[in-house]
Amino acid sequence: MGKLAGRVAIVSGSGRGIGRAVALKLAAEGARVVVNDLDTAPAEQTVAEIVAAGGQALACAGSVTAPGFAERFVSTAIDGFGGLDIIINNAGYTWDSVIQKMSDEQWQAILDVHLTAPFRILRAAAEFIRSAARREAEAGLEVYRKVVNVSSIAGVGGNAGQANYAAAKAGIVGLTRTLAKEWGRYRVNVNCVAFGLINTRLTSAPADGDATLDIEGRQIRAGVNPELLRQMEAMIPLGRGGRPEEAAGAIVMLCYPEANYVSGELLVCGGGFRI
Questions:
Q1: 144 is an active site residue
Q2: Active-site residue (options: 93, 165, 186, 256)
Q3: Parent domain of 226
Q4: For residue 257, is it within any domain?
Q5: 12-63, pLDDT tens digit by residue?
Q6: Does 213 fall in a domain?
């Protein structure tokens, strides 16, 4: 029996990278997990890994920015597992440019995935959370639910070439702190984790120096120049970028019962690096 046995979690962007590590860790602690990815295959692969390890999981593939997705995501948990206790807003990507070269599409796309999509998912979950909290209070039960939103050190201190990303990641901190105040009465802990350099497909140096991601038909450049990556790692007190499993630890520990009195907080997970 894990610390999260009987709990139901939804994790956006959990087919790969940090989100996958979060889904696996939640499942290892006993949670039933709804796995999301833009593409069906990675979502189903994560589900298969959870099931093979003895856990329970369902896939909910699709873009978090699509109309109606938030309601479908929340309903998958409620209809499939009978409830919803943990919400992890993790999905996202970067589309960088200096401001004079940044298009309206580029600006809006990043705000949509990092800020508007989490807002819609939380809004879609609101009625279930409010109703469940009322029923539990009437029964004399004290049940805590968890929301963890993902930010970045770019949202804390800014980062050149990422006006869109930094603005969205700063916005998610504001959303987190506001919802902590709105949902405290429902016994929901709402916190935020800001990551530094975590080695995923979005940050790892591409072997050919020119890797791209296909995001809904857009070809987005991915990876970091190897020399720049070395410079970034040299600035981190722990001397290296983080692993997805370490990033997942920062998120999942905020979902444990030990964190029931932690809410409205921003946790920086960056190996000691500060902007």
A1: no
A2: 165
A3: 200-241
A4: yes
A5: 999 999 999 999 999 999 999 999 999 999 999 999 999 999 999 999 999 9
A6: yes
